[in-house]
Fold this sequence. Notes:
alpha+beta; four-stranded mixed sheet; single chain; 4 strands
Amino acid sequence: MLGGLLGGVLLLRRRAARRLSPPQGYEAVPAFLSVAERSFFGVLQQAFAADYLIFVKVRLADLVRPARNNSRSAWQTAFNRIAAKHVDFVLCDPADLAVRAVIELDDASHKQPDRSVRDALVDSALDGANIPVLRIAARLGYSASKIQEQLKSRSKSAAFDARNRQAR
């Protein structure tokens, strides 16, 4: 009887191990960032490393969430719209990791209609959460000081917009 019980336990463990083991067919991505993203990341480090921590490829749902006043189904629908999207770069305050801004590097694919819809959703979600988003067109070279100025201008505008929304 003990042998049968032990055999049953071993069979269950094998089945559980098979279910938990990852399916075959995965391989490592050669580089976490594309060549263009890596180049731009270096410029962001020059521009902002002294003031911010820079995170890359962050899931949008880790930055914003649907408002709690929605019904459960409306909340789930809103969450599903953002759950699989990510943003390129996030600038965070080093003291408390509060999100200060999002920077998107837009290559030619962002001109496609479906990508424009995605970008509008991302921008709307970030705007609703009062997180400034700066979109930079991908190109061969960037100026760290120009990106700093663009973000400063965008952040002031976002802060102004947020104050106006709260005053209404």
